[in-house]
Amino acid sequence: SDGLMALSRDVQGISHRLHSSKLDLIGLSAAANSWCREVSSYHNLNIEFSHEHVPSRLPEGVGISFFRVLQEALSNAVKYAGARHCRVRLRGSTESLHLEVIDDGCGFDVDVVRQGPGLGLISMQERLKLVNGNVVIESKVGAGTTVRASAPLRPDPMTEAQAASSSVDRAVPWTTA
Q1: Residue 109 CB partners (closer than 8 Å, separation 6+)
Q2: How far apart are the C-alpha atoms of 144 and 81, rounded to whole Å?
Q3: Distance of CA 87 to the CA centre of its chain
Q4: Smallest Cα–Cα separation from 12: which of 29, 35, 44, 45?
Q5: For residue range 2-35, what is the model confidence (pLDDT) as tens digits?
Q6: DSSP labels for 96-164?
Q7: pLDDT in tens, 112-133
Q8: Residues 6+ apart with CB under 8 A from 153
Q9: Cα 169 from Cα 167, distance rounded (Å)
């Protein structure tokens, strides 16, 4: 199955080529949608993608982090879970952004994996911490897996207050005695 190997290399190639600049250009929803279509056509996986209220401009690092979580979740669904159907939902609110990936694969024991030599999703949790977000993985053997990522869309109120006070300082007219 040389074709399949080449295919999986292609998918990895596409994944590495998708840098944050391109993500910023086309937006997270479009990138996620095309990734779902891509995975769906390469693997026997039916992916239902939906999105709502996802802002076109996201705070630094949020878009690419969510995209990587999606890649990791779909990759696990294909490689390990033998999933046939997957639901991907991306939604935003004024406060935060949420991603949910639900597969109907074989599932796994989260505690066992956590102690094992690293499921990529654990490293995703580290990545999301950098944008003050988090990743929650729910899975049961025989009952599929749900991956949920969320991150705030607003800067922390403290930094806004600091920014406001420093701009006030700059606005004070400079007077000569």
Answers
A1: 139, 140, 141
A2: 8
A3: 14
A4: 35
A5: 665 555 555 555 555 555 667 878 899 999 999 9
A6: EEEEEEEE-S----HHHHHHSS--HHHHHHHHHHTTT-EEEEEE-TTS-EEEEEEEESS--HHHHHHHH
A7: 766 655 567 678 888 899 999 9
A8: 55, 58, 59, 62, 92, 93, 94, 95, 96, 97
A9: 5
